[in-house]
Specification:
By secondary structure, this protein is α+β, with helices and mostly antiparallel strands. The chain has 2 domains: 151 residues, 3-Layer(aba) Sandwich (Aminopeptidase); 146 residues, Gcn5-related N-acetyltransferase (GNAT) (Aminopeptidase). Helix content is 30%, strand content 26%. The longest helix is centred in the first third of the chain and has 16 residues.
Length: 394
């Protein structure tokens, strides 16, 4: 994926009346909001850039365009942007999803940016910067990305984005190393036959089972238990465990359930599952959501805990994925989660995408600098099908 970023609107602006960025003209072309007539061209560009499709099928373009219409246009306003060359061709695209934040109780508007891409046949290095500059002319307080690739990092750093290093890593907890490697290979090359990989993977993993099996309980507390949830329960309880962040989402009635319903449409890693950790009195201490199925790789969407309960919540997530029969767990790091991840055996880290923030408001900048911000997961773009699904294959 390319740069996704959050964009918060001016603290003085009405969150319900956020104006779309104006048309920006230059000798390189014009930037304007996405419209329905652009979708097929944008979908074809997306499949070429991010799915490496050399031969585009009509059904793949149609499925991708329909999905983009659902997330970018069906809300009634277009925050996504396109760049049009002087010749009238599509030169680039910047996906933007509007969201709401609050800073110490003050309402802010945010925009989550998904793919940033340019057509190499028409672009001369100007589309990316031009799209970002046009976006910055909107009335947003916060510009954020949690999965910027290295090209997008190069565009954004001169525009005074703050890099959050602790959020730029992905982590993997391995249960069955050969099965996990086979799953990653099939994710990259879906056409690989299972019979060529699975028998060897099973034999190797049986030999190494004791080495990678998770402990019965990693955390020190024996008074914490885990329970499954459904999407409605997760939506109801998640806000309570993010309330200790100064800069956090402000989900309105029905917004979080709708977001989870959209996230559940993602297909690459199996169904979406929810769970939580609770004390003896039934108080929730943490919660998590992950995609997973037996034999696959559990892909963490969100994990959050209050106070000192991150370790117990990580235990519960790993126990659920192990019980399900997953080959391992992958997820994105965050500042408050790092001590628990570092203390776990068989956890490996790698760079997965830049997390950056830009703001004109000093208080927002300070909250980000101090790590007092809820970012990533549902407040990113990795929950969308654009982050992983192979459109038009099924």
């Amino acid at each position: 994926m390319a740069t996704p970023a959050l964009h918060l609107v001016s603290a003085n602006a009405d969150p319900e009346k956020l104006a779309a960025p104006p048309v920006l003209d230059s000798h390189h072309g014009a930037v304007r909001p996405l419209v329905s007539e652009d979708l097929e061209h944008v979908a074809a560009l997306f499949l070429t850039k991010f799915r490496r499709r050399r031969h585009l099928l009509d059904r793949a373009i149609a499925e991708t365009a329909a999905y983009m219409k659902g997330i970018y246009l069906d809300s009634g306003e277009s925050n996504a942007l396109v760049q049009i060359t002087p010749e009238g061709r599509l030169g680039g695209f910047l996906g933007v999803l509007k969201a709401r934040y609050e800073l110490n109780g003050a309402a802010l508007n945010a925009a989550i940016i998904g793919p940033l891409m340019a057509d190499p046949g028409t672009d001369h290095g100007s589309a990316g910067p031009q799209l970002l500059r046009a976006l910055h002319q909107g009335e947003f307080d916060l510009y954020l990305t949690d999965s910027a690739n290295r090209v997008s990092l190069a565009f954004a750093r001169p525009l005074k984005y703050q890099l959050l290093p602790a959020h730029c890593l992905g982590w993997t907890r391995i249960f069955r190393p050969a099965a996990l490697a086979a799953g990653m290979l099939r994710g990259k090359w879906p056409g690989l036959p299972r019979f060529a990989l699975d028998p060897c993977a099973r034999a190797f993993d049986a030999f190494t089972r004791k080495r990678f099996e998770p402990p019965v309980q990693h955390s020190s507390s024996h008074r914490v238990h885990r329970e499954p949830m459904d999407a409605a329960q997760f939506a109801e309880r998640l806000p309570s465990v993010v309330s200790d962040y100064s800069l956090r989402p402000r989900w309105q009635d029905g917004e979080l359930p709708r977001l989870l319903a959209l996230a559940a449409e993602k297909r690459a890693d199996g169904p979406l599952h929810f769970g939580g950790t609770f004390d003896e009195a039934g108080k929730m201490l943490g919660c998590y959501a992950f995609y997973g199925e037996p034999g696959g790789i559990a892909n963490l969407l969100q994990i959050q805990a209050s106070g000192s309960h991150w370790g117990a919540t990580l235990d519960a997530l790993i126990a659920d994925a192990w019980t399900m029969g997953c080959a391992g767990v992958i997820g994105q790091t965050q500042t408050r989660f790092m001590p628990q991840l570092f203390s776990y055996k068989n956890v490996f880290f790698r760079y997965t995408g830049g997390t950056m923030v830009r703001s004109r408001i000093p208080e927002v900048t300070e909250a980000v600098r101090s790590g007092d911000v809820f970012i990533g997961g549902l407040m990113g773009d990795r929950w969308t099908r654009l982050s992983s699904d192979d459109f038009g294959r099924n």
